[in-house]
Amino acid sequence: MNRRTFVKSALAVGAVVSAASLVRAQNERRFKTALIGSGWWGMNILREAMAAGRSPVVALCNVDQAQLDGAAGEVEKLTGEKPNKYHDYRELLDKEKPEIVIVATPDHWHALIAIAALKSGAHIYLEKPICHTINEGKAIVKAAQGSGRVVQVGTHRRASPHCISAQQFLRDGNAGQIGMVRAFVHYGGGAGRPQNPMEPPAGLDWDFYCGPAQKMPFYPGIHPRGWRSYLNFSNGQLGDWGIHWLDQILWWSEEKSPRRVFSAMARHIKKDSGDAPDTQIATYEFESFTATWEHRLYAANEAEKHNIGCYFYGTRGTLHLGWQDGWTFYPSSKGQQIVHEDARLNQPDGQNIKELWADFLGAIDENRKPICDIESGHRATTMALLGMISAKTGRALDWDGKQEQIQGDAEAGKLMSRPYRAPWVYPTI
């Protein structure tokens, strides 16, 4: 029998912003805001920024004219103001001098844009994962640390009420000693079919889209929203969904990084034109526990009670921390009641951007770290990228978290960076 309970916790390590601070936010300083990457998710973020009432939108940037025009039209409809439109983020930063920049491009662009925005003096809301390769992330952290600016990473589950209360439940010892955490995403899908390369649609600057990544043929499945299936631009499901759940593991743990990583990946089912794995398993060895990640992009079924989230396995029971299904604790002892808390999410797309944006503004106002600070985002991203490097090399990696180096494997170490396509220059650490 399920007993629905709403665990009453104050603020955990991170906190949902109080109602009082949300009201206060309406009456405080306004920040000229620009969105770079005005597609689906970027607009989800910008809508919450506009709704908070402190972000006049001065500019939008996109290499796809159709997306740019559509976003500008929506901003004008919602605010009555016409934002300036840009094709090149560098021109936007130079001319507009925004005080807040939202970076919501595909992953391979995150590092160059975030660093440029920090150098221009802006506070940054940076979508996850923060980078495409580990050394890009190190360069962003370095730029942020010397900037005096706030960088909020878009791991909005740190602002989800049910994630906060689940973390407090675990820290209070209710699940006992945790020896293993299993993170996973199991979504259905078919094999798909190969596509032929084609000319990019009118209005899309494909060369600029590829940017520092290698120039590749355009496939209709890439844009919009399909680029995560191509490792030229992303790190697949581990770099997308994995970031959220690996971050929850690091948030719970007092350990900041694993000491050893092994991963295997494959495309067993997918027959489309992408190259991201449809199947992957990664093992992360920490000092006091073991964490695993697994995903598949096929075989949705009713056999498994939960299809996304983390299982925290403890001596007193198992806690499943999920997304739309909240969290549930299953006690080890027979006769004890199951404990459950529902999720409280915003629409569209079941997110907590509103709460995360409010914390972002609070961090700027109060000159403090946000709940999803750049160092935390970097550590979660690094975990995912280490899994990808291990899978590419086919061997386990020993990781020195303090020095941020792969030990004893020069070949794997080279994959912490990748060559940039001219004229783009890889950021220095």
Throw out a few tags for this protein.
429 residues; alpha/beta; Rossmann fold; Dihydrodipicolinate Reductase, domain 2; 2 domains; 11-stranded mixed β-sheet; 6-stranded parallel β-sheet; disordered N terminus
What is the rounded distance between the termini? 54 Å
Number of alpha- plus pi-helical segments = 12
C-alpha Rg, in Å? 21 Å
Helix content: 25-40%
Low-confidence residue ranges = 1-18
Question: What do you see in this structure?
Answer:
There is one protein chain. This protein is an alpha/beta fold and 429 residues long. The protein folds into 2 domains: 2-157, 3-Layer(aba) Sandwich (Rossmann fold), CATH 3.40.50.720; 175-346 and 374-414, 2-Layer Sandwich (Dihydrodipicolinate Reductase, domain 2). The protein contains 12 helices and 17 strands. The strands form 2 sheets. An 11-stranded mixed β-sheet has the order 1-15-14-13-12-8-11-10-9-16-17. Strands 4-3-2-5-6-7 form a 6-stranded parallel β-sheet, with helices on both faces. Strand 13 (317-321) and strand 14 form a beta hairpin. Helix 9 (236-252) crosses helix 11. The N and C termini lie far apart (54 Å). Residues 1-18 have low confidence and may be disordered.
Task: Describe the structure concisely.
This protein is of the alpha/beta class and 429 residues long. The chain has twelve helices and 17 strands.
Topology:
Blueprint: E1 2-4, H1 19-25, E2 33-36, H2 40-52, E3 57-61, H3 65-79, E4 84-86, H4 89-96, E5 100-103, H5 110-119, E6 123-126, H6 134-145, E7 151-153, H7 161-171, E8 178-186, H8 206-210, H9 236-252, E9 260-266, E10 279-285, E11 290-296, E12 308-314, E13 317-321, E14 327-331, E15 338-341, H10 353-366, H11 374-393, E16 397-400, E17 405-407, H12 410-414
Parallel strand pairs: 1-15, 2-3, 2-5, 3-4, 5-6, 6-7, 8-11
Antiparallel strand pairs: 8-12, 9-10, 9-16, 10-11, 12-13, 13-14, 14-15, 16-17
Helix pairs in contact: 2-10, 5-6, 6-11, 9-11
